[in-house]
Amino acid sequence: RGGEVTNAVRYNPGAPATESTRRAISNPRPDALFLLALPDYARQVPPTLDYYGASRLPIYATSHLFEGQINPRLDHDLNDVQFLDIPWQIPEAAVGGIEALPFLASYQSLREGSDPGLFRLNAMGVDAFELARRLPQLQAISGSELQGATGTLRSGSDGRIERQLPWARFVNGVPQPILIPGVFGDQRTP
Question: Which of the four CATH numbers 3.30.2320.30, 3.40.190.10, 3.40.50.2300, 3.30.420.40 does domain 96-164 have?
């Protein structure tokens, strides 16, 4: 979309985020920050941006920053950080809430007895099973999609499965849905 990466900063996840954050926003000052970090490190970045006078800099992140368990006490520093994750991991971001999640019965049984670190893999397994059953239908009917545990799945023109994930942002330390159709150039919820 015409954007440009102005700076890429590698960091030591065991070190404080102070120096790497300062380098990430040094000249030229970016329009946004893309963050690939685990929760302990990611939680340090917004307060560090505040310290350097860049508190209004939008932060976009991968799902790595969310452990999958609601923890407002720890995650309050991530407020306003936007990220993508699978519907099963952030059910509050699903249109219609938890009750509207794809394969709800599987979600409920796996969520209770699952290791949070493996839960995303469980969701992938559920989608793999459903794709195996429905792949001919997805490939035969142009534009058809499957609302899966890991996102909206559809067959691409090259036969590969494409996935669209919901967006969320932290509000009071809790992931909340971003429900703004068309914000990323499509007509569905981002």
Answer: 3.40.50.2300
